[in-house]
Write a structure and sequence with these properties.
Elements (H helix, E strand, L loop, with lengths): L6 H16 L22 E7 L5 H4 L9 H9 L14 H10 L3 H4 L29 H7 L4 E4 L11 E3 L10 H10 L4 H8 L3 H4 L7 H15 L3 E6 L1 H9 L6 H21 L6 E6 L15
Parallel strand pairs: 1-4, 1-5, 2-3, 2-4
Length: 301
């Protein structure tokens, strides 16, 4: 688990590709606690859950914030974790997530900001949505070339990516409208979101781009795991980031949102167990940045 994304962690993620390609053992970043014993089964699956904006205190000191996060606590006890690492520059969502999947800094991979350069405001609210803007290979591209099954769920800069299952992070308006939901259904792997909606009756109400609820993201992940058993699954959960921007670190609606994210991670683990792949799976819970409180903003012009 990582509170903020670091280049060192990206390199560890690249190493994981070798892990499940050649059935080696996990070479993780230096843990703050003794690592769990390596699994007896070869690693054939990697599930990477990014909880956008998750800070280290969420799992290092949950009691200090009154957090009920049994899944994160269990992962700390049974796995490896980080007390904190340095993020890339700039430490924001799209550059950080792209560094996660490439192992290089934003100056090299080309996603240097959340928003495209738009001095005349021709595209208000647009983000760096497109995989075509990434200048170097991504881990999901490398995995797919090796013949492995890949799945991307609301992953930043994934529009145009090739995967066996994909739900791109994309919208036309913020806040979202039912028209954006239709667009996302059309852009996703054909039939995927319709199948998820049949499996989870409340899914459509929670899938409203740009902020699809974490439960909806987990609905997709659970369905993909149980029906496809991908070798590489990457899931982006965004509610913690959204409500921390709104209410401040560990304030207002944030604690309950962190707890909700913990529940979704538990659902994903349960799905891997149900699918019979858990003993061959490496689970990574990561994040892209943290937060600092501010008392005022200065915005010239």
């Amino acid at each position: 688990m990582s509170p903020r994304f670091a280049k060192a962690f990206a390199h560890a993620l690249q190493a994981l590709l070798i892990v499940f390609l050649f059935a080696g053992t996990l070479a993780a970043q230096k843990p703050a606690a003794p690592a769990a014993k390596p699994p007896a089964s070869p690693i054939r699956h990697v599930i990477m859950v990014s909880v956008d904006g998750l800070m280290p205190d969420s799992y290092l000191n949950p009691d200090a914030h009154g957090l009920k996060v049994p899944t994160l606590r269990q992962l700390m006890r049974e796995g490896s974790y980080s007390e904190g690492v340095l993020g890339v520059m700039p430490t924001v969502t799209y550059p950080s997530h792209t560094s996660m999947v490439t192992g290089v800094n934003p100056g090299t991979h080309g996603i240097q900001s959340n928003h495209p350069f738009d001095p005349f405001l021709q595209f208000p609210g647009a983000l760096r949505w497109y995989t075509a803007d990434i200048r170097v290979p991504t881990i999901y591209q490398v995995a797919r070339k090796k013949g492995l099954k890949t799945a991307l769920i609301y992953w930043p800069a994934s529009v145009g990516a090739q995967a066996d299952a994909i739900v791109q992070e994309f919208w036309r308006r913020d806040p979202g409208t039912p028209e954006d939901t239709k667009l996302n259904f059309a852009m996703a792997t054909p039939g995927l979101l319709d199948a998820v909606a049949k499996h989870f009756p409340e899914f459509r109400a929670k899938f409203l781009p740009p902020r699809i609820e974490d439960e909806a993201g987990a609905d997709i992940a659970v369905h993909v795991i149980e029906t496809m058993k991908p070798n590489l699954l990457m899931v982006h959960l965004i509610d913690v980031d959204h409500w921390t921007h709104e209410d401040g670190p560990f304030a207002g609606r944030v604690p309950q949102t962190i707890e909700k994210a913990d529940e979704q991670i538990a659902r994903i683990i349960a799905a891997a167990k149900k699918a019979g792949i858990w003993n061959e799976t490496v689970l990574l819970v990561v994040s892209d940045h943290g937060f600092l409180r501010t008392s005022r903003r200065v915005r010239p012009r």
